[in-house]
Specification:
Blueprint: E1 2-10, E2 16-27, H1 47-99, H2 108-134, E3 140-146, E4 150-155, E5 159-161, E6 164-169, H3 176-180, E7 189-198, E8 201-209, H4 226-231, H5 248-254, H6 272-286, H7 288-294, E9 296-300, H8 303-308, H9 312-315, E10 321-325, E11 334-336, H10 341-347, H11 351-361, E12 371-375, E13 378-382, H12 384-394, H13 400-419, H14 427-435, H15 438-447, H16 453-461, H17 464-473, H18 478-484, E14 498-500, H19 504-514, H20 540-550
Parallel strand pairs: 4-6, 9-10, 11-14
Antiparallel strand pairs: 1-2, 2-8, 3-4, 3-7, 5-6, 7-8, 12-13
Helix pairs in contact: 1-2, 5-6, 6-7, 11-17, 11-19, 12-13, 13-14, 16-19, 17-18
Amino acid sequence: MTCRTTAVHHGSNGSESISQRLDHPIPCKRSFCWFAGGVDPFPEPHAVASLDELAREQDAVDRIQRAHRAHVGSARRYATGLADEASFLSEEGPRETEAEVGDEDSEAAVEAATARAAAGRTLLAWKRVRELEAAGEALAFGRITSAEFGTDYIGRMSVIDGDDVYLIDWRARAAEPFYRATPLEPMGVSHRRHLHFTDAKLTNYSDEIFDANTLGDHQSLRGEAALLATLATRSDGRMQSVVATIQAEQDAVIRASAKGPLLVQGGPGTGKTVVALHRAAYLLYADRAALAETGVLIVGPSTEFLAYISDVLPSLGESGVVSVTVDRLFPGVLTDPDASDAVADLKGGAAMAQVLADAVARRQRCPKEPLTAWYGSRRIVVATAELEQFVSLAGRQATHNAGAGVLRSLVLDRMIDEVHEPGFGERRDVREALDESSEVSAFCEAHWPVLTPEQMLNDLFGSKALLRMSCSVAGLDADAAELMYRRRVKERDLWRRRWYRSDVPLLDELLWLLGDVAEATNVESDMEHQFADEDDVFTVDEQRGEEADLEDEDEEKLEPEPGEDAVDSYDAWREGEEDEQWR
């Protein structure tokens, strides 16, 4: 005698999974079934009921797909209309602008702005079309059943038609039970079903039961865990999305709070990378407004790795993610392989973040004496106490360069208040004159200079004393400072300096600490900024006397310009100044 076999077993997350093999008859007197506690709650299932259930699931999938296609068509028509409007405005706008040149009251500027806005809306609309099309045909991958909400289908993106919710985005809060429900904590779910597709066609499904008492027709239940089916799928050489088979522990990582860094550790092959990619997709869904300006950056170890994972996020409906390798984090610089593994390992250590932060803070110096400047024949003196207060206010800014702009603005406003007389000119005329004051520029350069990441790292690596002080704060010894030392390059030559690849992440970190130079206002771009007060800077004679002390075997060799002294390196943090009062 032969019969079909049904087996109920515990799934990977502790839930019971009912498996039905319809194509492997085996000789037996009775199909063997067991449930939690060893009870057989169901009679032998029937193949017909199972096939009918598959057909019903196919109908639900088709309904979702029809609504999605209608949504794609609507989005495409909307984008096409915007494109036509933008094309018309871009043709009319320039002609209107040209015709109305010199007329301050004309609508030409408005027309041009409208054309630009229309072009921007068009780009966003077509981006949405591409995202919808990238989701593919097999949108739904499972459903959950609960007494409170009934049956909800879960998929790669939401599909809504009026008041009808056909599909819930896997990142939505309502989808959490699909990933988190267990027999001990069912979260109100009585039944979870995974849908299996082959070439976008529904071919199978598997069920997990959390409360058998709430089930109706049990004869259509099927098994074979979705996770095992996914693992058995042949790979095409690229990482695939696991959104349909995310486990509870992985889901906890994916949906973790976005406040602060999140460190995920695990052995090889445990899913760290794929979970990180799904977390990026979740954050873009949950915090889209917050990430609209900053975006998401994925840093990988190699271009081959980035190519391997390149299909995951687009398959989840997210295309606005930038992927780079470590040596591409800071664009626009020339790089060479590291000369020493020891130096590369040192620069790649966590302590370097503190070294850089301390080095930046040392460029923010409290004034020790009043600032004296001239406005015509009038002598302006800003007291030390006032300057200290301005420095304190500048320190409240998010970045160094923003603080530099605030400090300069506060100093200028203080001087303008003293010399400006209402009725005898505009404040902006006084500001323009004082902004060109060499005394103000020298003060700002000495106490809070505007810096680019290249300038800052060039200054840090070119100063043994500054390296020693900042390394000491970070718990690194003098040998570490000596390893990182490189002769300072003149700023006009920085554009052709070749950095080591291990310097690129440091430049990226400095960009975060310093901010863009545009954050500072009234920047003197042609000034060769200095380390500290003019009294601290070496003269050429002092440089020649200290030359042997400042150079090392790996110094930067740049050919001097004709008539230029070859010695351009100096170190303002001289021996004995480590105890200087720095901010």
